Automatic annotation (TrEMBL):
Membrane topology summary: Single-pass type I membrane protein
Compositional bias (Polar residues): 181-191
Name of the protein in its database record: SCN4B protein
Gene of this entry: Scn4b
Classification via Gene3D superfamilies: Immunoglobulins
Upper classification of the organism: Eukaryota, Metazoa, Chordata, Craniata, Vertebrata
Keywords: Disulfide bond, Glycoprotein, Immunoglobulin domain, Membrane, Signal, Transmembrane, Transmembrane helix
Transmembrane segments annotated in the record for this chain: 140-161
One Gene Ontology cellular component: voltage-gated sodium channel complex
Length: 206
């Protein structure tokens, strides 16, 4: 049983980089690398680190508790902390300034919480760095975008209609279920009352 208890605690700490773990940035731009963490029992002297390609440390911070913002221990001069831990989310996102092609790769956001018996968790983002957009013949692009956009629009509209219809069907079914439950409940009550009336009427007949 103690083993299971520790197992449950280890999974209380979670680190997330959002719905998608891939980010594309233009060369020489600044890019946001998002990261938030959640913990069921709170945190004390929590340590978080950002790594580039698993080994190179680019940001190291510490958070005393929920009432305080992180304190910097060490960072790469081009990395800037932009999160906040006193607001709703425990946001430990960073911005990488003046992105170069050599910055493309894997970025890992790692968190360790002493309050949860040093539970650790991490999440990874893959950064791709691209050249600046090349100008093309706008007429062709606009026609393609228009056609594709129209098709996507129709598809989204179809998906929305389908979802609404399914939602209405589900609600109707839920309604029917509720009706069935309540009517069967009424039947039982009526049967019960009818039975009790019959019993009351029975003695005079006898």
């Amino acid at each position: 049983l103690p083993g299971l208890h520790v197992f449950a605690i280890a999974f209380a700490l979670e680190v997330s980089v959002g719905k998608t773990n891939t980010v594309t940035a233009l060369n020489n731009s600044n890019v946001l690398l998002p990261c938030v963490f959640t913990t069921c029992i709170g945190f004390q002297d929590l340590v978080f680190t950002w790594y580039f390609n698993s080994t190179e440390l680019i940001y190291h911070g510490k958070i005393k508790n929920k009432a305080t913002e992180p304190t910097l221990i060490w960072h790469n001069p081009r990395v800037e902390f932009v999160g906040s831990t006193t607001k709703k989310d425990n946001n430990i996102s960073i911005v990488l300034n003046n992105v170069e092609f050599s910055d493309a790769g894997k970025y890992t956001c790692h968190v360790k919480n002493p309050k949860e018996r040093n539970a650790q968790h991490n999440a990874t983002i893959f950064l791709t760095v691209v050249h600046k957009m090349v100008k093309t013949d706008n007429t062709v692009t606009l026609i393609i975008v228009g056609v594709v956009g129209g098709l996507i629009g129709l598809l989204i509209l179809f998906m929305l209609i389908k979802r609404v219809v399914l939602f209405i069907i589900k609600k109707t079914q839920d309604g029917k279920k509720e009706c069935l439950v309540s009517s069967s409940g009424n039947d039982n009550t009526e049967n019960g009352l009818a039975g009790s009336k019959a019993e009351q009427k029975a003695p005079p007949k006898a």
